[in-house]
Amino acid sequence: MTETIENVNQQQSSTDALLSVRDLTVTFQRQGEQPFRAVDGVSFDVRPGQTVGLVGESGCGKSVTSLAIMGLLPHRGVTVEGEVLFQGTDLLKESNNQMRDRRGRDLGMIFQDPLSSLNPVVPIGIQVTEVLERHRGMSRKAATPVARDMLDKVGIPDPERRLKDYPHQLSGGMRQRALIAMALACQPRVLIADEPTTALDVTIQAQILALLRDLVQDTGTALVMITHDLGVVAGLCDSVNVLYAGKIVERGDRHPLFAAPRHPYTAGLLSSIPRLDAPRGERLTPIPGSVSDNLPWDHACAFAPRCPNALEVCREVRPELVDDGSRALRCHNPVEVNR
Amino acid sequence: MSDNPLKSHSDRRKQRIDDLAATAGDTARTDTVTTAGTVEEAPGVSLIASAWRRLRRNPVFIVGAVITLIFIILALISPWIAPHDPAAQPLLDKVRQGSNPVPGPEPGFPLGADPAGRDLLSRLLVGAQQTLYVGVVATVFGLVGGLTLGTLAGAFGGWVDSFVMRMVDVMLAIPSLLLAMSIAALAPRPSQMTLIIAIAIVQVPIFARLLRGSMLAVRGSDHVLAARALGVKRSAIVFRHILPNSLAPVIVQSTLVLATSIIDAAALSFLGLGNPDDRKPEWGQMLGASQHLIGDYPHLAFYPAACIIIVALGFTLMGESLREALDPKTRR
Amino acid sequence: MLRFILRRLLQMIGVIVVLSLLLFIWLRSLPGGTVSAMLGDRATPESTARLRHELGLDEPITVQYIRFVQRIVSGDFGISTGVLPGSDSLDIFLTRLPATIELAIFAMIIAIAAGIPLGYVAARRRGSALDNTSIVGSLIGVAVPVFFLAFLLKYIFALELGVLPVSGRQSGDIEATRVTGFFVLDGILTREWDAAWDAFLHLILPALALASIPFAVIFRITRASVLEVMEEDYVRTAESKGLSSRVIRGRHILRNALLPVVTTIGLQTGGLLAGAVLTERVFSYSGIGDALAVSFFLRDYAVLQVLILAAAVTFVVVNLFVDIAYAVIDPRIRTR
Known about the structure:
The complex is a heterotrimer. Chain A is of the alpha/beta class.
């Protein structure tokens, strides 16, 4: 393996989808309860070097989607249907051991809380080298300088010393950087980030996001960014998928989507954020109701009870996703575009 | 595992008592905050009610409760259903005459007799009553003692609290059997009451710590704060608010303490530190008295031992499943 | 870290002092005090007074306490009147100590070797038949009085099946040279293999009985701890890195889950003495547990003194070790 970190992904054609999620459906079945469909027919593509966002409130299914892609969902009580094509192979059909090989090597993931995501009794250096030892067959000795370089690359100062430190000796931002280093150590082609900045201070948030952006640009790794924070999306993602109650309700490229959201939910999300340039005294407009007001997707639009644009048909017929390539929309009565 | 490991005597025992104490409290409200920013409130679910619902379906609890119930009933009615007077020695002549020191089963004596010619079955049945008596009285004494200590410490706080709790900690650190032995040895003439008191004293620190923990948990709760703000007298607060709400953990601990009381009583009797008078049979004492014959007549030891084990098991199963049902960490 | 150890050592000394005081008070409160027990029926006012004076019982209580401490520190605990009449109590203690230590070590090895793996497997296969059986088994292990289990084992294996010895530490017909007092070790050191093997056989049943409670506790704590750790985020991170299940089990799950188990092991060791009292009695195993039981029964105060003090010191020291061990093992504390 003589590829340097920089050019590893430039060999692939940049128009082929690297990761292709097709009709992913995840159903949870608890004893004595109704089956719950957390993810309902979700489809999206990720191209090499692209950053794709999955946006939505808590409980909309975005985290479950990422866990399904990685194969990290529990086996009991969970049914996963659909396809997750990675370079043509359906990951959902891979065996446990095959997925174990892929995780860390082809797909990397970072999670929300950096402190609890790190093993408290093992030094940071080993938590990085163990990935290299596992997937590259390196010895601890050979892997250590590579680990140090990774720590340096993610912006941790004095990486030589940090190798021997324990997680509790690092600050929150540094821990997340260390986790990024671990996830990218073997140069996976896809990195999934599940709310990586939610647990961090605002200033650190910005740093981590900048780091992610730089890393993605340098290495050509594709990034799937999962968040509920539209600000994060705006700064980072090329393409945005908006999820509601397990289904994608709108998709678009960053600028067109933010400039002119068409789904009432997206519009509602955008308008509920306070803006710097809004006139003083202007009220915030939250989305009324709550997630428990949802209707089931089977025979209606789940968002209808909370939707300012709702028509009668919205409560009777499920809207289908209309995809014209650059923009997708699932709505009977979208927001009017006014220029 | 986030407890502070630098606590000296970080006893698992103490931690379990403390966890149990923290479950004290009245209702458990569940709030759901949705992401759109509205707050819903689910109706308050009483801790005891939700625990009961789960217990009803738990086989461990059911087995334990059934055993316990059977034991209690048998213990209460035993003097009436025992075929013979346990102190009487109807087969004594047989023992003296025959070469067989322990008469076997025969009509009227389904389990045979002991070396003094007394009917074994009757002794076992009435022994249930004595065992229950010893266990319950020891537990009640321990409870009252612990309650007093714990209430004092919890109600007054400050140096009273520290002093009492230090003593309690020391007592908790010593294995219960050794402590019981030491106390039983202080009695000039061992009797059933000295046995009871020795065991009761061993249980006092358990209850004291439990009560104090419960009181601290409840003391900080909202309705107590409200009562204080309204100027309700301290004693009224203690008796009408704090104590009733600390009840649930006490019930759980009592069942477990009953089990250990019975076992410790048996152990002490086995070691010869219990009640020497065996006219009123007690299982532990029967077990101890029969150990020298165990080679040839093991049943003399096995019957009382089996009884002890089953009963102790019953209380333990019941108590442990109660504890798990009330433990907030395992509740969803 | 050093300061922590020093502070704990000082605390320990303080506790031992308090314990010696309690021991003194307790001994004075024992019925049949020293005088009437020693004189028995032949007590007359003069002989009682004379004996009291000899024993220093007519002096102020504080002086008595100081004498008490002086005697203890110099190793004079008196002459045994019950356990081994005429012998020095300290000698009795020292002679019997290795027996109990040997038994305790063996029992803890069994408890740990069985408890930890079983606890781990039960946690990994939660809800399975193995898991449920093990849990019930451990509950029974705690509920069954140790002495009954000892009885049962003795009856089944020694008396009925005759496979293992009934009592004692060594068979009467074996010639064995004593070096350390640890019979198995002695046999190995002197290459008297038959003596070592014989001693080992004598240890099996009592050790099994004694191990029942620590095993049950270690099993439950390991299981609970592993269950908790399995839910932790860092295990999920380890999975997301695609690490082998062996690495995840060893480095991520066990290294964290076993921390509280270490504490438990230490504490259980301290509590073994109570079980030893009963077990040694049943098997007529001449350790200090047996001596304790007999001295309580026969009111052999001299021996009681030394045994209780030894027991108290053991608890305190074991607790200290456990605290230090935990501080050393957990890097979060070590690197403060």
